[in-house]
Amino acid sequence: MRLVLFHPEIPPNTGNVARLCAATETPLHLIEPLGFSLADRYLKRAGLDYWPHVRLSVHPDMASFLREAAPPRLVLSSARGGVPAHRFAFEPGDAIVLGPETTGLPGEVLALSEHLVRIPIQGQVRSLNLSTAAGILLHEALRQTGALD
């Protein structure tokens, strides 16, 4: 399993995702451009002292990620459509891709895979925080594949 943040914009969100990845030994891939510097103090603060335990890769674009990481399957997240995450059959090695906080994944990325998941949300809330969504999706994927034992 791996988490992929496509054009992340907010340093504390990425820092929280990095801490999640350290806690689950999940590789984290960032697809540029980033909305911050990797030296950003808010990014570092959110990740605390766990950064040395994060298997971090930064890619200049999605094509580079696909070439270098060669994931067997892309699982794309969307607040607007797809199979509810708890009903989707995750597989070991999946690359769970989340989009920018303000816009979500663009059409050209959504066109890369037929595997689209969403987190069911009730009421008037349009979407969840990126790091919250990453935690929900990753833990569901790890639970389904037996990686939490």
Protein described:
The chain has a seven-stranded parallel sheet, with helices on both faces. The protein has helices spanning 11-24, 41-47, 62-69, 107-110, 130-144; strands at residues 2-6, 28-31, 56-59, 74-77, 83-84, 95-98, 116-118. The chain is α/β, with parallel strands linked by helices. It has one domain (2-144): Alpha/beta knot. Helix 1 packs parallel to helix 2 (41-47). Helix 2 links the parallel strand 2 (28-31) and strand 3. The model has no long low-confidence stretch (mean pLDDT 92).
Mean pLDDT: 92
- Low-pLDDT runs of 5+ residues are none
* Structural class based on helices, strands and sheet pairing: alpha/beta
Fraction in helix: 25-40%
The CATH topology annotation reads as: Alpha/beta knot
Number of separate structural domains: 1
> For the CA atoms, what is the radius of gyration?
14 Å
Total number of helices: 5
Distance linking N and C termini: 15 Å
Order of helical and strand elements: EHEHEHEEEHEH
Which CATH architecture is right?
3-Layer(aba) Sandwich
The tally of beta strands, per DSSP, is 7
Question: How much of the sequence is in beta strands?
Answer: 15-25%
Write down the overall geometry. globular
In which order are the strands of the major sheet placed? 3-2-1-6-4-7-5
Q: Please name the fourth-level CATH homologous superfamily.
A: SPOUT methyltransferase, trefoil knot domain
Most strands sheet? 7 strands, parallel
Would you state the CATH class? Alpha Beta
